[in-house]
Design goal:
Layout: H1 3-52, H2 58-73, H3 80-89, H4 100-113, E1 117-122, E2 125-130, H5 134-137, E3 157-158, E4 163-164
Antiparallel strand pairs: 1-2, 3-4
């Protein structure tokens, strides 16, 4: 049996693994950058909608969809009252809701039950936040290893110390 053929196949497979791992790392870095940019743009559009007086389109989102969108774009965990305040800033139409805070709390609890938002207790209050994605759970990508080559001696330079003669 020719062991060399198998060793070559093993080396090729290992090289392919290294190449794919590097490609995945590059994609993870790119995805993290895109997700950050997307979150920034969502916050910007929310703020601009508030400034120009646009309402969140109730017919398209409804209360639960609007609540989910608020939590999805939030930069920190929010209580039901925080969500209500944000919806009011965005001029959400609460006319058909007798007790908006109760409706918001119910929507948040249902979203939590469906595992669409995360819930925690902070200072005795329920706070809701975006559920972490797989990308959020990944450890940070370490910087690439960079090796610095030793200086190449040239004529007129002492080869042992790298200094001029």
């Amino acid at each position: 049996m020719n062991k060399g053929v198998y060793e070559q196949a093993l080396m090729a497979a290992n090289a392919e693994i290294d190449r794919i791992e590097n490609e995945v790392t590059d994609l993870d870095v790119r995805r993290a950058g895109l997700m950050s940019r997307l979150a920034t743009l969502r916050e910007t559009t929310s703020a601009l909608n508030a400034v120009i007086g646009n309402q969140i389109p109730v017919k398209l989102l409804g209360l639960t969809g609007a609540v989910r969108e608020i939590i999805r774009t939030a930069t920190a965990p929010m209580t039901a009252a925080d969500v209500r305040d944000q919806l009011e800033r965005l001029r959400f139409d609460f006319a058909s809701y007798e007790k908006p805070i109760s409706s918001i709390a119910t929507a948040l609890n249902r979203l939590s039950d469906q595992k669409l938002v995360a819930v925690n207790i902070v200072d005795g209050k329920k706070v809701f936040s975006k559920r972490p994605t797989l990308a959020d759970l990944q450890p940070p990508v370490p910087p690439p290893n960079i090796t610095v080559a030793a200086p190449v001696p040239f004529e007129g330079m002492d080869k042992t110390e790298g200094k001029k003669k």
